[in-house]
């Protein structure tokens, strides 16, 4: 069986990032604030990646199942993801979009978590397209959002984290280590294999000299 652990679908672009609201501009382009960027190949007249396109690509690539993730830059698609999973229950695994710093989330969480198709929560933390850009002071180990880790652990939901680039403000491995120690039964998945990039791979301090240090081993043990 082939499982793709990281895919996205969205019927339109209506999100936000550090530079402002986002919206579709057609043929793979989006508006980010007052700037236009090419988000994806010019596959369609409208900038979208639908469930039908995903399933067709899965069939073409002989992929049996996939995990549907979400991100702030194209906007919350919880209902669309649920509807799609209802059409293809044997092929899709749903991950819910939550903004931990949203004022109304504590009251809404239980209703969202009661939906059985949602198996995990994914947080896009990057500065460019995620929560550390939308909420510049946001820290994963802040006490104001610790209630969420308690509830995820209690409900046995998986926490997915995209920490983005090494050494960026969103690469909060210390905070993840703190969470992992405090909530030992909370399963944490860090996306993109920790997000290495060519610059980091060429840096002897980040990728070479620290590999064998006690600090590196401590972080790896927390993330294991």
Which residues sit in consecutive blocks of at least 5 with pLDDT less than 50?
A: 209-213, 215-220
The radius of gyration is 18 Å
> So what's the overall shape?
globular
Beta-strand fraction estimate: 15-25%
Question: How many structural domains in the coordinates?
Answer: 2
Q: What can you tell me about this protein's structure?
A:
With about 220 residues, the chain is of the alpha/beta class. The chain is about 35% helix and about 20% strand. The protein folds into 2 domains: about 1-95, no CATH class; about 125-224, no CATH class. The strands form 2 sheets. Strands 1-6-7-8-9-10 form a 6-stranded parallel β-sheet, with helices on one face. Helix 6 (about 175-180) crosses helix 9 (about 215-224). It contains 9 helices and 10 strands.
């Amino acid at each position: 069986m082939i499982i793709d652990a990281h895919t996205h679908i969205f019927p339109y672009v209506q999100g936000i990032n550090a530079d402002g609201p986002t919206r579709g501009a057609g043929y793979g382009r989006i508006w980010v604030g007052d700037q236009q960027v090419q988000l994806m190949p010019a596959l369609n007249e409208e900038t979208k990646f639908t469930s039908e396109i995903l399933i067709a690509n899965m069939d073409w690539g002989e992929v049996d199942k996939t995990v549907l993730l979400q991100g702030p830059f194209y906007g919350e698609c919880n209902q669309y993801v649920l509807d799609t999973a209802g059409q293809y229950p044997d092929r899709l695994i749903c991950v819910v979009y939550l903004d931990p710093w949203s004022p109304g989330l504590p009251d809404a969480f239980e209703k969202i978590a009661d939906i059985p198709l949602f198996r995990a929560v994914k947080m896009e933390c990057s500065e460019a397209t995620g929560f550390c850009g939308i909420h510049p002071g946001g820290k994963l180990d802040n006490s104001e959002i610790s209630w969420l880790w308690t509830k995820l652990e209690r409900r046995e939901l998986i926490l997915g984290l995209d920490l983005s680039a090494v050494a960026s403000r969103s690469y909060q491995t210390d905070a993840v280590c703190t969470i992992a120690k405090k909530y030992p039964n909370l399963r944490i998945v860090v996306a993109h294999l920790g997000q290495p990039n060519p610059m980091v791979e060429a840096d002897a301090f980040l990728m070479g000299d620290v590999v064998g240090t006690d600090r590196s081993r401590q972080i790896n043990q927390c993330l294991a």
